[in-house]
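Data availability excerpt. The first of two example chains:
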Amino acid sequence: MPLMHRLAVLLVLAFAAVSASAANTTARLLLSHTSAKPGETVWAGVLLQMAPKWHTYWENGGDSGAATKVDWTLPAGITAGEILWPVPEKYEAAGLITYVYHDEIVLLIPLSVAPSATAGKADLSALASWLECSELCLPAKSKVAASLTIGTESVTSPQAARIEAAKKALPQPKPSSFAKAWWESAADGDKRPLLIEWPVTAGALESDFFPHTSTNVTVSASTEFVATNAGTIRLRKQVEKLGATWPSEIAGVIVQREPGAETLSASFIKLAIGDTSSATPSSTPSALGNVETKSLFAWLAYAFLGGLILNVMPCVLPVIALKILGFVSQSRENPKRVRTLGLLYTLGVLVSFLILSGIIIGLRLAGQKAGWGIQFSNPQFVIVLAVVVTLVALNLFGVFEVTLGGGALDAASEAASRHGGGGAFMNGVLATVLATPCTAPFLGAALGFASVQPAPVIVLFFLTIGLGLAFPYLLLSWNPTWLKFLPKPGAWMERFKVAMGFPMLATALWLWCLTCNVSVKPALESKAVLEKLAGINALGLVADYTSYSPVISAELERFGRGGVPLVVVYPADASQPPLVLPEPLPYPAPYTPTILEALGKAVK
């Protein structure tokens, strides 16, 4: 391409960029006063008004973007301070996280009038430059100007109310004692994980830390939330060193949205960074096999795996009888119908988990603590479910001639035991309901992590658990050729059906936590554990969660668990953190050795 042609193209593009930028964001200069006395401070506000879908940036742009700049031209006797930045939005697009402003924003700058300033009219002007982005990003700038009279009296301007509103949008300072920060581990090259913790309002819908820019480090815009004690929030930020030494402090804004609030509240804070031992024992619950510092993806994997394991937990195992019999009878059917039934079963599971997540979120918004299996604290619910499960067991035994007035319970149990579309959906619902008294391995910790997350994350976790619960049946229904490995229909089905009626009946007799009764309680009452407790002069304490005690709920949340069972061993040395035992494996895996191992560690 000829040189002149290339220059012409560049000039056209530059002109197009300037023209486009002028239409996307406009700038004005606001003043709090029309007249001020020498020695006073006047507030200036650069008002940026963005077109729909366009945004400008906070003082820290995040993964991309650049802060707005204001270059002043001022008369002698007037000096400008630094820009005071309102709370931004955290914005994610194309895998990048940035801190932005949409619609309009007022950037406040204090203007100091010197005591020796000359009386009369003072012309104030500035060149505001910014980066505005939507589908693409464009640099833009505009000159703004206003006049101020310096005299013997102070007169507010018509824009004073708008300036005051902008002041209220600024982060309010917090003392450094409000929060703490410490390095989580040693550096890996020029990168190092930083933990930040502070007390959080109960039921807060959003919490985060927006770091200020620094000349010697880069702090990641992405945030990893770490499970911790009740009433506090802990998060991880990845820090990259740009200079020769690691920083000794970090400054930024703690943001939070409380229940019922439309906007984020924010607090500016500057924290000294402690070393890797700065976490106090009470706020760092240790665990055998502790997994509290996983990424969001890892927590979701734990949720899926926990849902998968629920299929073999004592509370869900009886429902497998219905599904196995159903798959055997479907083995000769049209593959399309088998897939449809698998999808309906999965839909029943996911809809049920979606409803459960809605209940949990609703209770949190009402200021109550809500955990896994909360519905089993309601005696009426337990009675109705026990009757339904009993009727299903009777159906498996072949004695389902019992009829009850109204037919509602008959219809429910019959729907759950037939093999059509309605039966497949109701099997999914029943499997979900029976799963909630149990916390499978990996599931309790994942639920504990999800319990302190925003509502969308809670919904995502519950749906992931449901997908794990439904996955074996969904996989089998979409691979009908695998059904040929199942036994052919025959007389054995009736015997198997009757045999599986017994665990279903046991479920009806044992509705609260089956894992507690089948694995944990027998282990705690075992001869080996009782002798160990006596030998080390220790005392065992059992808390009953049947009535959904708020005190127990608070303890579950404090140790990062979403439901029972929870076994905690307190060491003899009170300065050491308690040991949080992992969830028991499905019965008949013994839990006694796990408890004995923890008791042995507690006395060292």
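And the second chain:
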Amino acid sequence: MKFLNGRLAALAAMSVAIGLGMAAAPASAQKTLTIIPHADLRVLDPLQAAATITTMHATNIFDQLFAWDVDLQPKPQMVGNHSVSADKLTYTMTLRPGLKWHDGTAVTTKDIIASINRWMKRDPIGRKMGESVAGITATDANTFVIKMKAPYAWVEYSLGNHAGNFPAMMREKEAMVDPFTAVPNDQQIGSGPFKFVASEWKPGSEVVYVKNTDYVPRSEPPDAMAGGKEAKVDRLVFKVIPDANTAANALLKGEVDMIDMPAGDILPLLERDKDIVVAKVHPVGGFGFFRPNALHPPFNNIKARQALALIASQEDFLAAGFGDKKWWNECYSYFVCKSAYGTEVGSEPYRKVNREKAKQLLAEAGYKGEKIYVIGTKEIAHIGAITEVLVDGLRKTGVNVELEMMDWGTMVTRFGGNKNKPGEQGGWHLWSASGSWSTWHNPLTNLGVNMAKEGTWAGWAADEEAEKLRNDFIAAQTKEERMAVLDKLHRRLWEVVPYVMTGQYDQPYAWRKNVSGVLPTSKLVLFNIAKN
């Protein structure tokens, strides 16, 4: 995929727009970069949550075999040399030299194979790849071979995944932990550019990382998640400040260096300060949605899910969540507008609010005024605002709503579990969130359109026809074959409505002007950032 007038133009424009500072000198001794994260870090093992804050933690301390560049194309990362047989059934990969775990021991293929196998059992993208894997074996301590049952076009792409559950390479000891059980918090040992300091972790307050002085970056220039990764500060601190105004004041006073996803209503204040940069990081932008629980009435009925698309406008959702229209645009593509697969076909009946039609569909689905439980959070400001618009739209449609606001960590735990419990017993009917375009732009990586009977993402929607079309897309060996399936899949998704889009946005970030090296990427990464 190429943005604007091509990759070079895009990177050049981004560099001018946000001051990338790629040539910044390495940080001098004892420099600390302090960031206010968008949410508190509660889940550390990346296989236990696809939450952005968990992925940010994982990219600090873990490395991966391949990594996506700014165009979401996979490039070797931990892998040095690799080859694919002519029949596309054998992938031979050799680790690049100098890889060490944070405990000083060498990374070996025993660690890598155990990590891949753990990831393929848990992550939706990994599971899909695993369906085609016949086996993975070690040739020696540095070379391993992946044998496929049938050609699968997404091997390197999947291993470079920056969507869903991050494919973190772990020591064999941690990789042998059951994939549905979290690796202990004091054993978060990777091989990436930063080390997690478990002894200084204060949940709800502070997370600390230190530079991994043993890390050997690749020689290529940094390119989103790919290329050379360097820790350019000695300490990296996540300082949790949920209140938006307190966060803004901390940045203005220089008490912190950066705010990850600042609230829309504080942006004008930050933009007026000559020492603050307010800009986007994501080349395409983020994607908002709300997800119904398809296991329980009324949203186990397609008509009730269709009704949800008619209760409020994307303009209302986006204005509430992101304020100034320069930061957002309406989008009715399940695969993100302006992306390679950003079709909007099939969305035409759902682009305007029609609450009378929504009432009719809910009645036809059997809804008779039962209480609908909506869970949300104000810890991430735009999610809180969009959730309130959702609730308002439901109430104006005659729905009996019970809204429960909580911190983001609790919400992640809540929507990811309790799927068999009704709302009044700790379950839920609806929740709203957002994600990066890298996750949502592709039928393979898009968690919400995986509609298999088993193993689907929180919301648990299933549809045989949509899943067949999605599998046809994934099985296609060329882009032309994929595009022939895409419109059929997209029309079916708008018929079964696995989730409702609240629109597309350019998430702004804010940092002080003495910070440089902020990379354009699908999710904020902290390596290559310097502080002068």
